[in-house]
């Protein structure tokens, strides 16, 4: 078995989670490979704690993980698959395999609004460290988890925060320990919310929106466009996997996780394509590994324990 990753271990978490972000899920629902995730504070794990945990799992099990290798080609013959990768130094490597598992996630590139100005240098798609927004006027576009958490953390870091969201309220699935506090800040006027509003253009010092009261101009120094991500289907195309539906998700057998290509499986959030509303995430995708292993070994699907009904489920 060999695992190749285009980035570091836990690349999505490393790249997209701001420092000290807490997971939605409880530690026991994030643990993998029978190795417990112990958190010193006995509460939900942070980004840093989970990345350290992933490194520990790889080290403890001595897993053959090769980071910063991008898959560039794949071919198939009677002997199986030949997969070509290229590392950051440009060196190519070829590996053969009888089975391939595509666990590529679904957050490869940012969604775009398609409005003038969204490529200006003061427009970001990731929160990063909120400290950089101290005493800055920040407009946050979006109304789901990432936008709500960014708004709260920027406000706490001393920013003047405005939210622009096309819905009439923050999304109901915002983390249940963030939603009521941010709603209170909006009601108190400490955070300004422009609901039922669409961004029409972004300028160096203002965001223009069309809302219930007509066009409006929101002065700003920074813009955080927290409207989500899309999956890059390039690897599915490379391996010939058929996709379907509005989320452009790979077709697969939910019992075995095998795609339309024999010997090619899909696992993790990759199974859902580009999710409009996240229904597949870390904690409910762990079962994919057992299904794939059973299918490769020719065993019956393993029994699965239903998830507990909790607010994060």
For this entry, give a set of tags.
19 strands; FAD/NAD(P)-binding domain; about 325 residues; 2 domains; alpha/beta; 5-stranded parallel sheet
Description:
Helices cover 20% and strands 25% of the residues. It is an alpha/beta fold. It has 2 domains: 3-108 and 229-297, FAD/NAD(P)-binding domain, CATH 3.50.50; 112-225, FAD/NAD(P)-binding domain (3-Layer(bba) Sandwich). The strands form 7 sheets. Strands 8-15-9-10-11 form a 5-stranded parallel beta sheet, with helices on one face. A 3-stranded antiparallel beta sheet has the order 3-4-5. A 3-stranded antiparallel beta sheet has the order 12-13-14, with no helix packed on it. A hairpin with a 4-residue loop joins strand 17 (243-244) and strand 18. The radius of gyration is 21 Å and the shape is globular. The model has no long low-confidence stretch (mean pLDDT 94).
Count of DSSP strands: 19
Mean pLDDT, rounded to whole units? 94
CATH topology of the largest domain: FAD/NAD(P)-binding domain
Helix content: 10-25%
Structural class by helix and strand composition: alpha/beta
- Please, how many helices? 7
The dominant shape is globular
Ends apart, CA distance between termini? 32 Å
Largest sheet geometry = 5 strands, parallel
State the order of secondary-structure elements, H for helix, E for strand.
EHHEEEEEEEEHEHEEEEEEHEEEHH
Q: Which ranges are low-confidence, i.e. pLDDT below 50, for 5 or more consecutive residues?
A: none
Q: Looking at this structure, what is the CATH superfamily of the largest domain?
A: FAD/NAD(P)-binding domain
Q: How large is the radius of gyration? A: 21 Å
CATH uppermost class of the largest domain: Alpha Beta
Please list the strands of the largest sheet in the order they lie side by side: 8-15-9-10-11
Total of domains = 2
Using the 3D structure, state the CATH architecture of the largest domain. 3-Layer(bba) Sandwich
Indicate the proportion of strand residues. Answer: 15-25%
